[in-house]
Amino acid sequence: MQDDPRTHLAAAARDFYARGWMLGTAGNLSARSDTDTFWITASGRPKDRLAAGDFVLVDRQGQVVQAPPGRQPSAEAAIHETIYRHVPDARVIFHVHSIEANLCGHFARQGRLRLPPLEMLKGLGVPDAEPQVDLPVFANHLNVARIAEDMDREFTGALPRVPGALIHLHGVTAWGPDFLAARHHLELLEYCFRYLVQAKILAIGV
Ligand SMILES: CSC[C@@H](O)[C@@H](O)C(=O)COP(=O)(O)O
Ligand SMILES: [Zn+2]
């Protein structure tokens, strides 16, 4: 799989699994193959041992273009397709289920999570001295298509200030123009989540 996006996606999945972000088949990763298609992890596959046969090629309408026998695209492919459609420079999307992302779901208000005004936000493209950045938080509908519809409606109005979004009590999705940028964005969002959780613990003094 030399320089095949699937190689990089499988390596990213092993990395995120090792961090505890993709346990029990949780999460899904994708990368554009060309303007009209993207590779995405097949549904239900263990993320610490992905191989070429664990990826499905889908088009912008979510139709399967190429799939190994017995493999279906991620159940959350519509979310990836929505992001690719709204964010032209997004070429890689990572969706993981970290504990911190889910704890931060409890801190969300009116569909927004206020990120801490940290220096780290510069890495998310926010140069302000005192940044006031809200991450969109989407309801975790049982029907994933509804999550994608909510995201489509939100992004039609305005894209998030930073390249990411939270699905309430589910997980976080981050994206970027390439694998390294998408990983940086995910790491920086997860850093902010860890900060928020630890700040809450300090505040309540447990
Ligand atoms: C461990 S169940 C997690 C799934 O329900 C879903 O949220 C997820 O992230 C993975 O779904 P998948 O269809 O395997 O891509
Ligand atoms: Zn998920």
Automatic annotation (TrEMBL):
GO biological process: L-methionine salvage from methylthioadenosine; pentose catabolic process
Pathway: Amino-acid biosynthesis; L-methionine biosynthesis via salvage pathway; L-methionine from S-methyl-5-thio-alpha-D-ribose 1-phosphate: step 2/6
Gene3D superfamilies to which the protein is assigned, alphabetical: Class II aldolase/adducin N-terminal domain
Protein name in the entry: Methylthioribulose-1-phosphate dehydratase
Molecular function terms, GO-annotated: aldehyde-lyase activity; methylthioribulose 1-phosphate dehydratase activity; zinc ion binding
Assigned keywords, A-Z: Amino-acid biosynthesis, Lyase, Metal-binding, Methionine biosynthesis, Zinc
Cofactor(s), by name: Zn(2+)
Catalytic class of the enzyme: lyase
Cofactor stoichiometry and binding remark: Binds 1 zinc ion per subunit.
SUPFAM superfamilies: AraD/HMP-PK domain-like
Domain (Class II aldolase/adducin N-terminal) ranges: 7-197
Family classification: Belongs to the aldolase class II family. MtnB subfamily.
Residues involved in Zn(2+) binding: 95, 97
